[in-house]
Design the sequence.
């Protein structure tokens, strides 16, 4: 339940959601990176990473799962998961990556992220994946703490370029079996 008493609903995205996903992705990315990067760098990155054409292509990819979080019919966040490879720092036979995990700023801390993460873990478990992994910007302390709460541990780093600035992402991973073990012990978040 959120503070308003309305539980978040997590649904699978449809092909018609590509503009919504583009908007949510660009909005949340801008909130996180705007203070640390030039407007020109941001515009270029956003056009390349969150344009509607890109979202439509990602929705059509069978290795991808898009989940949308809604409260009272309002879209408040989303996650994109993708089966495939993992970096050398993460050993797995069948990994799945959380490529994007976003909750609108005013909904952070209101149980939306928890509901969305539970569904991500459920999807990962259902697909028989052994490791779920992600990368998170090193300056996003709140996101890092959230992922740690869910059993993700730092396993490496990787640089990325945003405009003229080279920044760093933390690679975080957790075995999928943690979910089942936590449920048995009654300690799942």
Sequence:
């Amino acid at each position: 339940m959120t503070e308003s008493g309305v539980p978040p609903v997590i649904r699978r995205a449809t092909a018609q959601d590509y503009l919504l996903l583009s908007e949510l992705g660009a909005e949340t990315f801008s909130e996180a990176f705007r203070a640390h990067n030039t407007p020109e760098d941001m515009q270029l990155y956003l056009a390349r990473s969150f344009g509607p054409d890109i979202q439509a292509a990602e929705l059509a990819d069978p290795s991808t799962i898009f989940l949308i979080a809604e409260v009272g019919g309002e879209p408040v966040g989303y996650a994109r998961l993708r089966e495939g490879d993992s970096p050398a720092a993460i050993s797995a036979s069948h990994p799945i990556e959380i490529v994007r995990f976003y909750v609108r700023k005013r909904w952070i801390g209101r149980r939306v992220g928890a509901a969305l993460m539970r569904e991500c873990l459920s999807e990962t478990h259902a697909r028989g994946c052994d490791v779920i992994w992600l990368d998170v910007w090193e300056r996003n302390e709140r996101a890092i703490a959230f992922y740690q709460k869910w059993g993700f541990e730092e396993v490496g780093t990787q640089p990325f370029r945003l405009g003229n600035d080279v920044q760093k992402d933390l690679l975080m991973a957790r075995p999928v079996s943690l979910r089942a073990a936590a449920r048995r012990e009654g300690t799942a978040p």
Summary: The longest strand covers residues 165-175. The helical segments are 18-33, 39-50, 52-60, 112-126, 141-149, 177-185. The chain has one domain: 9-185. The beta strands are 9-12, 64-71, 74-83, 95-103, 131-137, 153-162, 165-175.
